[in-house]
Design a protein that fits this description.
174 residues; alpha+beta; 3-stranded antiparallel beta sheet; 2 helices; globular
Length: 174
């Protein structure tokens, strides 16, 4: 069975005043499981594209990278189940065990992530939740942080954050 993938080349540019902008080139791979392209080739492509882009801008490219998304599901429909709005999220705070800190927001979090009963309308994340420990075991095996620690090695806490959808502002009159 073919595994389609979306491949992205990511660039961040900065002007002399410190303002930053992002550029993203998106490609498609029909079957990533059969692709013969290695990471060294992709990284080389990212560098070559970055060199070409640098010649096209008056700003400086300060960051170059790539990403690959695969196992892409179809968008949910009313026939495939009920999905909650993603405006609400659980903000989680982690440490890597080596002075590094990470934050992760889980959109539309499941109830199993939280402690039962909250005082003062504060809904906090259960540090012993099985879904949280499963995430930590998945991230601490292979993801090394910039400080040399393991991503998600320490859990510092988290809570539910509710937000309103963005309001679109329209100028009235002239």
């Amino acid at each position: 069975m073919a595994v389609p993938a979306i491949q992205e080349y990511l660039y961040e540019v900065q002007d002399d005043r410190g303002f930053r902008a992002h550029m993203r080139l998106t490609g498609f791979i029909a079957d990533v499981s059969a692709a013969t392209v290695h990471l060294s080739v992709i990284a080389g492509n990212a560098g070559a594209i970055g060199t070409a882009l640098q010649a096209m801008t008056n700003a400086k490219i300060v960051s170059t990278g790539f990403a690959m998304r695969f196992d892409i599901a179809q968008e949910p429909t009313s026939e495939s189940g009920v999905y909650q709005l993603v405006e609400q999220g659980a903000i989680l705070s982690f440490g890597d065990g080596n002075t590094g800190r990470e934050r992760l927001t889980i959109p539309a979090p499941v109830d199993a992530l939280f402690l039962t009963g909250g005082a003062d309308n504060l809904i906090v994340v259960d540090p012993a939740a099985s879904v949280l420990t499963a995430l930590q075991s998945a991230t601490t095996t292979d993801i090394v942080t910039a400080t040399g620690g393991q991503w998600g090695a320490q859990f510092f806490g988290g809570q539910l954050k509710g937000t309103k959808p963005r309001v679109r502002r329209v100028l009235q009159g002239a």
